[in-house]
């Protein structure tokens, strides 16, 4: 039995891919799909999110974005979304059922300093062979007429995409249910060990759950920000507050990002008219309070980008905890103890990196799996949990 | 039978006082205590809310504030709050059960223009014989250490008070229940008439309500912003958005008000650590959406007054509709049609004016009531619905 600790987008994706391979799987989570995945905006934007020091993260993101269309199509089929959106063309179930869209991200600039930074970023992306287009302020407003008049230029990453994470986790839960994967709604309180070897998980008491322990050949730790507490891995909570607005008609045709008052802000439009504003980044430990200051920051900065947001209704405000790591790269692969596999530390990239993470874990755990080779091997190396063991 | 249309703070107060006099009463409201009273901050601040053109409103407010302590004590007793807070001293049940506090309001100023306006207001209040104290910025911060350093002066109205409107309406509902007053949870769709005379109300279908009509000798219209639709009186909805924050320890010892970016903002501290930020004033018809712009305005302005609010958790955000009138004075007394009594149009002052309104309506409807005389007569004259009939 493979016990997956954590029912967020990572844990559910891993569980789904393992179950598809015919491996026995159980998922443990007291509240599946209600953690960071519930708060996530769902940007699949490795290009516009790149920064100079994070070329490895860009490689991971680009590789995972490439896997998203097939991942979404298969998920839509396994979750029964094909039936709901029956008769539609290829990719339609993923597009309508998961709100997967690939209309690009527009990164905008206000002042002269911002513009200079965009120019440098464009040059850097060129060097990496990434598709971007440098736009004037006028060209930006032609693409997105609701942008503030003060926007002076932008960088369009036409290959970036986005998806609705709540629909994705709902589809994953439906697919797991159809595959007969048990979901244990209890909190994993700790790991069971036989000497060094991890042999299962200990459960907190929960309504309707009789078992107090689950034995496992392998425990896959996908507990997000709580992974550090369970297995001592270097993962810390990074709080994010996010707001969902309701728009009678779509204000934007694509994701829009910018840096306002020194803080990054983004707006993600959904197919149903919802507009997501995100997100604060706060180092406050396990604090999930929605605060006056957090909302103020989001609203102030979003207004600078798209003044029309002020007219929109506030539908939802949530705070979530991203699982941050010291180098902003995830931890995927064999843990220090035999029997423990890590799939955590995805920080801001859990939704984007879910297909790649599930593929790497599945490849490592499938019967007869060898050491990964080629590009997969290189990507796996970047995420290897061993990098922190070597340091310490 | 006296049918009270509207179960907000005004309708419930009128019903309670009439029932106490032994008059037969029924209250009609599809969702009692969930309208403007639910959104209200509960400032009982006639002095600090005064403006030059509104001396009549100040008279009404001061008269009603004077009635609040006895009103609250009797309400606490009738609602059984005395039992809950048994053994405590006089006024304790009202103080603890209704969160009635009388620690004053501090109106603060930032710029030179604001200070000059405060000086003029102080002089005006002096002329009216009202108790106010002009304070320096340092004195303001000595009273309220969490005030922004940029506060340059203030005006303290030590006699102003405040109360928790949600506790007040809950207590009124409890008192009515104990007095056996029926509450019909249906919407009054219109007035029944026999010629000119109002003879009852027509009800919309509602779960558990068999009656489609309620006959009445008198209909008291206390339907707030919806009064205009029901009886053609000059009442319009004035939208207000308000936010409740949760504070581990109280940030403020009294109500604090100020004008920021030209808009008035106030902060009302509750006994349980809650801090209420209010309120937008928007002329948008029957629109109760909480909007991005509304929240932004509240948060931005509250931060200017008390920067520490940014750390507080957001507990609740609501929008309500104040019943505005052309002259900002309420409509209390006989309507144009026989059988119709008005108790509506209280705009921002429903909670403050509830005791006076209930007293005026009760005095007018009690058996053997004569035309009101003395101060009550003068106050009743100010609120008389006849003033709009004479104009038209």
Look at the structure and give the mean pLDDT of chain A.
93
Major beta-sheet overview of chain A:
8 strands, mixed
Q: Quick one: CATH superfamily of the largest domain in chain A? A: FAD/NAD(P)-binding domain
How far is the first residue's CA from the last residue's CA of chain A? 32 Å
Spatial ordering of strands, largest sheet of chain A: 5-6-4-14-15-16-13-17
Radius of gyration of chain A: 21 Å
Shape of chain A: globular
What is the highest CATH level, the class of the largest domain in chain A? Alpha Beta
Work out the number of β strands of chain A.
19
What's the number of helices of chain A? 13
CATH topology-level name of the largest domain in chain A: FAD/NAD(P)-binding domain
Pathway (chains A, B): Cofactor biosynthesis; thiamine diphosphate biosynthesis
Enzyme class (chains A, B): oxidoreductase
Keywords (chains A, B): Oxidoreductase, Thiamine biosynthesis
Domain FAD dependent oxidoreductase (chains A, B): 3-362
